[in-house]
Model the fold of this input.
Amino acid sequence: MIRRPLRPLARILDARSKGQNPDIIEKENVAIRNDAMRDKSRARAERRLMILAFGFFIAFSVIGARMGTLAASTPTEPRAAAGGSEITAQRSDILDRNGRILATNMLTHSLYAQPRDMVDPVHAATELAAIFPELDAKALERRFTDGRSFLWVRKVLSPEQMQKVHEIGDPGLYFGPREMRLYPNGNLASHVLGGAAFGAEGVDSAEVIGTAGVEKDLDARLRDPAQSASPLHLSIDLTLQANVEEVLATGMKTLQARGAAAILMDVHTGEVLAIASLPNFDPNDRPSLDPKIDPSDNPLFNRAVQGVYELGSTFKIFAVAQAMDLGLVNPNTLIDTKQPFFYDGFRINEFDGHNYGPTKSVAEVIAVSSNIGAAHIGLMIGPERQQAFLKSMGLLDPPQIELFEAASARALVPKNWSGIVTVTASYGHGVSTSMLNLAAAYATLANGGLKVTPTVLHSAVKPEQTRVVSEATAKACVLMMRRVVTDGTATFADVPGYEVAGKTGTAEKPKKGGGYDHDKVINTFASVFPASDPKYVLVVTLDEPVETAGLKPRRTAGYTAVPVAGEIIRRIGPLVGLRPAVAPGAQVALTEAKDPVAQE
Amino acid sequence: MRPVLYILSFLAVLGLAFWAYRENYATQHQLKQMATLQDEIASLHDEIAMQKAEWAYLNRPDRLRDLAAINFDRLGLMPIQPQQLGSAAQIAMPAPPVLVITGTVDAAATISDVRIGAAMVAQTGATGNNGPTAKPAIPVDAKGEQIP
Done:
């Protein structure tokens, strides 16, 4: 800094020579210097004030913003997650459509040991073996003493067992909390629920993962911590399920069937109200796969979803529906049913050697279930259109349902859809599909032709549906199926008041070496009720049933699946709140009495 | 003046510090209490879940069916039948209450009164309506039932 002198010599000498007071110059310079210093300190003070103001502004802004967020946000407790609730709330409950529990969680304990802390391993091992019969005292003792620091003794304990273990009093035995999946209804709806097992295990908790059914298919949803408090609502109705299973089990026993399955579906939404497959199992104690028995006889096998069968004459209605939709036939069109009928060198026979005469109307072909008639209708349609139609009905794809097993139920379809396939597919042979697909296809016909996707989830929103069949065709099909029940092959299902409509199907099982086994049949009855305003579809299938009340054993669906389905409808009709309709007969009305003479 | 201000502000700081200290401990106490409450809520939730599971287990259809079968003598429960459902129109209207004359009826009338009364009975009685002729002698309570 250049410091300017207060008394610059040149000016002083100059002033002195002029006789002026040189002090004035000094004062003048002092004043200039003071001014400069004042300006400088003022600027500095201003800058400091600005910085301070900025600091205050930031501080108050932060406080203001924080107050704003506190005021605007919803009040939450600082420690919302309490220790105990975390374990039980891991997996959400599964409820039926009315809120009854199908699967829930129970807090139990597992037992583990830390042998280092044990006082008397030998005593503990013998005592534990006494409490749990499946444990071997010697093996346990060896494991306690072989130097390991940790071992699981049992995955789940009952409270009584836990108390007994407490009473052993060994400090090396520890309990870990466990959330256990509980199915309070036992075997009911076991194939829908599937089951659950422990995944990764820790001392304090263990993962519960679904092993089959809904539990596995919606595992991510059920384990989602954000949704653990909201239960999963299934479309299953526990009461209906119990009744269907009871009647089906009785029917299966009386008819000596190897297995049985039934599906009850809402025709408008595709919601499955009851789905049963017998034999079933207890999901609380899921049996393991026994490699010795045939997989299709295993209780774990879901016949209603996983099983793909040739569903026989129940397919005839699809050929008729398509032919009517294409304008090829109407219910009164006469169809050739003349015997013998050969196609491509194959002889097509009627079931059980029947002969239905030279012609039958389309409605009669359905009512008496004529294979030859259906084959002729199929040939009118042609292979490509038939395949496309069956595909559009969802019959050639794995069933679309929230059950893990469904994806594996691929329909068995010949690679080349030739003429003979068209002929046999018209009456339900040569094409195997899942029962669930059949139920959905019947629901499609019953609701007026809108495609139905089956679901086991209860939802308030109606799914968007595409039209597959025209409404008039669908209505006509239901009327034709009504005739099957009133005067066709399914008269045993004519439950008074419920206007049951349906179609029977008897398919002989394919033999292992080829050909068909006449004594081993799969009987199916697919029904719709009430026919005037269809609400429900019921499909009942029996595996190798035989009705022995008559002189010779009878294996047609009309004597096996049909009466079982009829009984199911009789039982569930009132439960779903369907009031039996009074048959529209002679109407009772007042008539005016007239003088007979005056009338003439 | 200035020393007073200093002393006052010092006291204010002291007071605020004491208040903040107390608030801190009060908050901690509340948090602890809340934690115990939440633990209690959690254990109650567990208990509720357990009770619900037990309720579902006790109400499982198999058990109810067996119980209905065991207690058939007392309860006579059967599966609901289609004919048990009907429309409201099928239910008969309740019959009108029938008047029963139990007490003595004081009657003081001339022949002509009797004739008028008989004519009224003939008119109103035919429609099933208990006309004014029958009413006065019998005490009737609010529900229309007679008090003996």
Observations:
- Helices of chain B lie at 2-58, 61-70, 72-75, 111-125.
